[in-house]
Amino acid sequence: MPGENDDPLNMPSEDAALERFKKIRAELEAMELPDLPEDEIDKRTQAISSIPSSLPEVPSLESIRAKAWESKERYDSKKAETAKAYRQDRENAQGLGVGLSIAYIIVGFPFVGILLGWLLDWKLGTQYIKGIGALAGATMGIVVALAQINRNAKNT
């Protein structure tokens, strides 16, 4: 109703709120609570306390610390195992790489020697230079393979 209350929040006036408070207070004072004897209060308190609680038991601080320490130790041991496995994998991969490069050297050098011997035989019209090229390539392959092995041994 316009003009009745100028408050934009439609709040009751201070006098109306005070009257309402007094009315509620009087109603509360008029209420009568049943008087219970002390024995009845004790019985009800015991009955309430004997009801099993649905809340879990709160663990002690020491048990929480022990569990946290065990968890940390498990985490650290797993981390160390993982690091060891990665290191082992890296070493295995490095060894595989060195082994393959040595194999390619041992096979490749004689092949290159045979190829060069064949070219010389073709140009010169001979037949024996292929064998010399294969022997020279095999010798060079073994020398380079041994150098590769020594270089790898120094790095590890």
Summarize the structure.
The chain is mainly α and 156 residues long. It contains four helices and no strands.
Structural account:
- It is built from 4 helices and no strands.
- Helix 3 (61-124) packs antiparallel against helix 4 (129-155).
- The chain is 78% helix and 0% strand.
- The chain is mainly α.
- The mean pLDDT is 85.
- It has a domain at 106-156.
- The longest helix has 64 residues, at 61-124.
- The chain has helices at residues 14-30, 38-50, 61-124, 129-155.
Mean pLDDT: 85
Shape: rod-shaped
Low-confidence stretches: none
Number of helices: 4
Largest β-sheet summary: none
SS class: mainly alpha
Compute the CA-based radius of gyration.
Answer: 48 Å
Proportion of residues in extended strands: under 5%
Helix content: over 70%
Number of strands: 0
Measure the end-to-end span: 95 Å
Please write the string of helix (H) and strand (E) elements: HHHH
